[in-house]
Amino acid sequence: MQQNDTVTQLKQEFLDSLEAHFAVSLADATDLQRYQALAAVVKQKIATKWRRTKEDYRDTGAKQVYYFSIEFLPGRYLRANLLNLGLLADTEQMMTELDVDFTAVMEAEVDQGLGNGGLGRLASDFMDAMPSIALVGNGNGIRYRYGLFRQAFINGYQVEYPDDWLKNDDVWEVRQDDEAQVVHYGGNVYLQDTPDGLRPVYDGGLDVLAVPYDTGMVGADNDVVNTLRLWSAEVPEGVKASVSERSVIESISGELYPDDSNEEGRRLRLRQEYFFSSAGVQNIIKHHLADGYSLHALPFQVAIHINDTHPTVVIPEMMRILLDEHGLGWEEAWGITTRTVSYTNHTLLAEALERWSQDLFAQELPRLFQLIQEIDRHHRVSVASEHGEDFAWRTSPLQDGQVHMARLAAIGSHAINGVAPLHSQLLQDKVLHDFYILWPAKFSNKTNGITHRRYMHAANESLSALIDTKIGRDWRKLPKDITKLRDFNMDEAFLRELAVVKRQNKQRLADWVSHNMGIDINVDAIFDVQIKRLHAYKRQLLHLLGILTDYLALKHDANAYVAPRVHIFAAKAAPSYHYAKQIIKVINEVANMVNNDPAVNDKMQVVFLPNYGVSLAELIIPAADVSEQISTAGKEASGTSNMKLMANGALQLATMDGANIDIIHAAGAENAYAFGMDTDTVYKHYEQHDYSAWDIYQNNPKLHRVLDALIDGTVPNVQEEGQAVFDSLIRDNDEYFVLGDYESYVDTQARLGQDYQNQQAWTRKSLANIAASGEFSADYTVAAYADEIWHVPHNLLAQQE
Ligand code: 26W
């Protein structure tokens, strides 16, 4: 069909849909109605491919991958779906012809935020990559009634509001009542001798109905549409539940656990973990048997991947189903389970490794607890003879009154991976070293990836179009082909065009900031960006100390040179993470101070954009000049904003941590700004206890002055918070070595500021980053999981014109 015909047809479908759904004309329709009407048209186009994909999977008996994740962070679907359907340009043209503000229409869609940060967004990037490389893979998670809280600042303090994302209904989901599963909690369980062996008898407890809502995951330029299945908790039909019993049940899918920090677990969280794990596994096995396969064929037909340890109860749940419901023996059930399940670790922070109190666990999931005791016993017996009692004890899932989920995941799966080379190495050498001794072949690395489609092709259309003019469109299907761009790094006209695109994106962000925050930022300045969850180890504080350093220099030293910068922060702090919230307050007060000081604010501005999420990321990332990735070395498993920012031409200011290392390697060290202690140095300090924040403070007058500014009234309105920051750095000896990396950070920033003044040389470095970003495509990441862990076919070239 000619493009014009497509546009004409789309227009008709859109106008018809508006009338059918809302009985309005285009002129009278609100943006929300326009969005919903257009989404309905798009959903229809997805539906046919979706039905065919499902039928095809069933008819061919293809092996299915199920990605179990307690978080998915899809953001908005409309633009991404249009892009993948090949209809984005036509829709834009249609909207222009209709004189409709398409951006406003897209912004009427709620940003679906059923995740905290990197882990959840990675899951959604994988949901985009799987169908795009024709991989048979589905998501399995929770349909939280409320997503991650919406963040606002009042007086510089974070306040949290509920994220009522279903207020206008979700256009994309389909409720599947006939697929509902019952999930059982609590009560007592006894083992009874029957002719078939020991069988559990349940007494009391709580039955919860898990109802799935499915959303089509649209492949890019192909006919594949996979399924993301999110479960919602309801009272089972026929059960008479009081109002309070009803709310206990519904709370299981009530809200996302808003914490990816080191906070203690809660009963509800455990219930959530079991909820989607049990519903998912029950449903998978039900279909497997209905399709005529034997349970022994499960590992050949199904791969269950657990995204961090939150779905680890999948392991004892599978054992329960195989043993109790189907009468298999322990060894055969264990073989089937471990060959089906694989596990990715996403954190090196000891306090973030999940552990549950055994008492709580046994109360909530009594049968699973028995099975974990049995897993524990088998493990000890098989390990102790060769490795000794102490080793067996150290690696046991049950120890010190707790259930150790990472141990259970490592024992009960056939593959364990980290998410960047350094992280995977540290897992082997430190965090999971004992398990590496036991089963070295289980371990591998799968470096994270991102979807260029959302973060580049859709969010930065002008950059993508400019690249097309140089190297054609093949790179959009094979992201590594973007290296061809390197041939143009001496093409001065092209470098100028790249700079123009960057400037337009900066202007777009500046307009947003002006409109939403009332601050006019300088688009000629360096846009220095740090966007990620607020956490001590990510060291937003180091960035802040750098800002204060520049500020004090400009105030007190007439000869100071500071390259003009706009410092851009966006971050949510876990509601219970008091220290992170104090840091937010301090950053906001420093921002106020700087932005309202005419003596400095032609040289520096600081903006903290509220309510960071996927949509805001799509706006900020194309506008970034500098990507701050400054975690303490050895703490950030991978990072993924680092990849998104490099793909959009930002240069990294980075520690040698996580995937920063690989990004610097890919782009070339001369095209990035590495600084700070490496992992070995950090570990040595921890081991030798020889780090003294006090000494650094005493011996560095510049730093001394900066830290004092937090407590001597220089920064206004932060009496308590400034003191808290000061105390954590000095009195508590700076757990994350902020002061240890300070000098190196400040020097590197100064060098970067100088370099930026040569626009052409800077743009050339920017180009080097863009051109090296292809290898960080999630398409390759997922393909590697498929080849080496899931053993399912895929086709990286499944995207045809
Ligand atoms: C107990 C609460 C909780 C919830 C989530 C603890 C820990 C988590 C996750 C494991 C935290 C997380 O999102 N990790 C991030 O995963 C990304 C994707 O692999 C990595 O890029 C980030 O480096 C890592 O911090």
UniProtKB/TrEMBL annotation:
<comment type="function">
    <text>Phosphorylase is an important allosteric enzyme in carbohydrate metabolism. Enzymes from different sources differ in their regulatory mechanisms and in their natural substrates. However, all known phosphorylases share catalytic and structural properties.</text>
</comment>
<dbReference type="GO" id="GO:0005980">
    <property type="term" value="P:glycogen catabolic process"/>
</dbReference>
<dbReference type="Pfam" id="PF00343">
    <property type="entry name" value="Phosphorylase"/>
</dbReference>
<feature type="modified residue" description="N6-(pyridoxal phosphate)lysine">
    <location>
        <position position="644"/>
    </location>
</feature>
<dbReference type="InterPro" id="IPR011833">
    <property type="entry name" value="Glycg_phsphrylas"/>
</dbReference>
<dbReference type="InterPro" id="IPR000811">
    <property type="entry name" value="Glyco_trans_35"/>
</dbReference>
<keyword id="KW-0663">Pyridoxal phosphate</keyword>
<protein>
    <recommendedName>
        <fullName>Alpha-1,4 glucan phosphorylase</fullName>
        <ecNumber>2.4.1.1</ecNumber>
    </recommendedName>
</protein>
<keyword id="KW-0021">Allosteric enzyme</keyword>
<keyword id="KW-0119">Carbohydrate metabolism</keyword>
<dbReference type="GO" id="GO:0008184">
    <property type="term" value="F:glycogen phosphorylase activity"/>
</dbReference>
<dbReference type="GO" id="GO:0005737">
    <property type="term" value="C:cytoplasm"/>
</dbReference>
<dbReference type="GO" id="GO:0030170">
    <property type="term" value="F:pyridoxal phosphate binding"/>
</dbReference>
<comment type="function">
    <text>Allosteric enzyme that catalyzes the rate-limiting step in glycogen catabolism, the phosphorolytic cleavage of glycogen to produce glucose-1-phosphate, and plays a central role in maintaining cellular and organismal glucose homeostasis.</text>
</comment>
<keyword id="KW-0328">Glycosyltransferase</keyword>
<comment type="similarity">
    <text>Belongs to the glycogen phosphorylase family.</text>
</comment>
<keyword id="KW-0808">Transferase</keyword>
